[in-house]
Amino acid sequence: MVSDSLVLPLPGIARGGLFVSIPVTRSKQEQGLLLWKLNLLYSNKKSPNIRSSHTVRVVHTHVDIIVRRAKIEDKARALDVESKATPNLRYLDVMFEHWVHDTQGDFSVAEIDGVLVGVAKLTVLPDGSAWLEALRVAPFAQGKGVGKQFYQHFFTVARERGIPSMRMYTGVRNAVSKGLAERFGFRLAATYRGASREVQPSGSGRQADNFVPILDSARSKELLLPFSRQWTGFMVMNRTFYPVTPALCETWSEEGKIYTDEASDSLLVIGARFQADKALHIACLGGDMDKCLAFAEQKAKELCVPKISCLFPHAETGIQQALLNQGYRLDGPDYIVMEVSVQNQCLG
Hints:
Elements: E1 5-9, E2 18-23, H1 28-43, E3 57-60, E4 65-69, H2 75-85, H3 92-100, E5 106-112, E6 115-124, E7 130-137, H4 146-161, E8 165-171, H5 175-183, E9 187-198, E10 212-213, H6 217-224, E11 234-237, E12 240-243, H7 246-254, E13 258-261, E14 266-271, E15 280-286, H8 289-303, E16 307-313, H9 317-325, E17 329-330, E18 335-341
Parallel strand pairs: 7-8, 15-16
Antiparallel strand pairs: 1-2, 2-3, 4-5, 5-6, 6-7, 8-18, 9-16, 9-17, 9-18, 10-13, 11-12, 13-14, 14-15
């Protein structure tokens, strides 16, 4: 029986939802020693040789996960979750209040026993599709189905609001994130490579004064839509993969992110979705790439932004070489964008 047992998470395997039950009649020293022995066995990838004479039983446990709308008072705990889940990719502090008040999308948190353990965002893009982002789960709660609950919630939101499709991105080597998305019917849409460079605030740099912003929506469509095929249907800013559509052209022209140099027949899309003080993002460049990159550097210096980033289709070796020639460094493993039709959802 386990009714007289002390139930504790087993270190090293708690991700799988395994717990150990130890009779409370055992001393704390005995309990600690037994936990240590079991953890050692699991860390060596062996099965614990638990006999009937042992007073320990490993059991699967069920947890109730509640997904609800995020509130302002959740911010501190959400930031703590992000700091531990993705310490090298943090932007909730900048976006939290804006996302809480985003009525077009959905910003939710997950709780277990009243404790906030996860956060995730559904953002509606200019074409009406949904972008899933900022899915963060506290390390101690990973493997318990929190991510699955977020996905199920977002499919419900998408169906209620008539959103036709959803997308997300992850690293090509992130098997867990990719596997969870595939479980819900997401399939690979495209593979991209990232590159970036630091911008020195001092020095004149290269000049590219002939670029002008395109503020007319019709003209922006004429210039940008022909690049859709080369960029495999997406243009990326702040690791948000935007489908190349007339609606996107209109949005980016209104925001002043599309530039052209008529003399060299060059086009550059540059800007930031958020954290514009930390980096500018090149979403598209064509024509004279050296001139495009010179103008990008010029803009970064004007705005005192220390970094420029670009995600481009991994097969576009010409773009990659142009970036490398100007001092950009590749990020590392490629990125993949995955998509699903909401009507064709797999139940997971």
